[in-house]
Description:
- This protein is mainly α.
- About 40% of the residues lie in helices and about 5% in strands.
- It contains two helices and two strands.
- Strands 1-2 form a two-stranded antiparallel ribbon.
- It starts with 7 loop residues before the first strand and ends in a 7-residue tail after the last helix.
- The model has no long low-confidence stretch (mean pLDDT about 75).
Amino acid sequence: xxxxxxxxxxxxxxxxxxxxxxxxxLVPNCPRLPEADADLSSQHQADVAAHTxxxxxxxxxxxLDQTIWAYFANARLAExxxxxxxxxxxxxxxxxxxxxxxxxxxxxxYLAACGLQVPG
Length: 120
């Protein structure tokens, strides 16, 4: 596309590139990408490295859409697991209150210990 439409790519001595339109005007530089919050490998358990994007067969292609989908799906699953763990911890705490109050027949004490409104 570049050469077919008359665009030029000029490599400077320092290795930088300059792009010109067919009329000779410079193509403006695009803004830099924002910095990442963390290293990609710290955001998931997948073994991502240069060798993982090499196709397994001749017809295979790297599927960026699928890769991004999998990344976000894994992040969603991790968040759901974290929330489930928090709920389990909360229920375990309620269970302690259950043993302390309900087995003694003190339902009001149980509700109060759980931080729930005691019906009046």
